[in-house]
Amino acid sequence: MKILVIEDEKELREILRTSLVKEAYTVETACDYASALEKISIYEYDCILLDIMLPGGNGLQILDQLKEADKSENVIIISAKDSLDDKLKGLELGADDYLTKPFHIAELNARIKAVLRRKQRDGKNTLEMGNIVLDLSERCLLIGGAQIPLNRKEFDILNYFLLNKNRLVSKNALAEHVWGDNTDQADNLDFIYSQIKNLRKKFLANQATVDFEAVYGIGYKLIEK
């Protein structure tokens, strides 16, 4: 799952990034209005943590942009401004939740998980296709009821494909979603092929009824055989 933290306070931004990475999220950050606007215009995120007061602009302006793009339902506003007007405005613009600083990281994690359940899984904690089940709470894969070990990237890749089953996923989109900002440092995308290859071996060895279909030069589809 890919999260964008839009927060100008450096110490809090790093605390949030570190704690969310420990929760196995892919995390990107923005420290001001301009960089935040650039990121939301280019990339897709599963959840956005949005501060209202930002250098160069207002977080509610960013939320307005997200609403126009039909992306505002995955936003949690995090702000020191405990104002009813701000809360109402944010919710009117489509924000999913509002958390007033200071807050406990555990509470934020709970709010994020609630947003992800509502947005992508209709409240469910599993993703299913054919005879495979991905348990998002336990971060494990079941094939025909048997638990199959996955490393972190394999889990994130399969999670993304199950959210986009039977749809063509480009290598660039997959890299940006699973690896985030670190993708820019890669010379090529061969690491994606390696992870997909490992997943296919596990599917084959455990008689999975799904497989990856390669579309040469573009990406892959997760399909039922």
Derived from helix and strand composition plus strand pairing, the structural class reads alpha/beta
Q: Look at the structure and name the CATH superfamily of the largest domain.
A: Response regulator
In CATH, what is the class of the largest domain?
Alpha Beta
- Helix fraction? 40-55%
What does this 3D model show about the protein?
The chain is an alpha/beta fold. It is 42% helix and 25% strand. It has helices spanning 10-22, 33-42, 59-68, 84-92, 105-120, 152-163, 171-179, 190-205, and strands at residues 2-6, 26-30, 47-50, 53-54, 57-58, 75-79, 97-100, 126-129, 132-135, 140-143, 146-148, 169-170, 210-215, 219-224. Helix 2 (33-42) runs parallel beside helix 3, helix 6 crosses helix 7 (171-179) and helix 6 crosses helix 8. The two termini are 26 Å apart. The mean pLDDT is 86.
Provide a concise account of the structure shown.
This protein has 225 residues and is α/β, with parallel strands linked by helices. The chain has helices at 10-22, 33-42, 59-68, 84-92, 105-120, 152-163, 171-179, 190-205; strands spanning 2-6, 26-30, 47-50, 53-54, 57-58, 75-79, 97-100, 126-129, 132-135, 140-143, 146-148, 169-170, 210-215, 219-224.
Which key phrases capture this entry?
225 residues; alpha/beta; Rossmann fold; Arc Repressor Mutant, subunit A; 2 domains; five-stranded parallel beta sheet; four-stranded antiparallel beta sheet; 14 strands; 25% strand; elongated
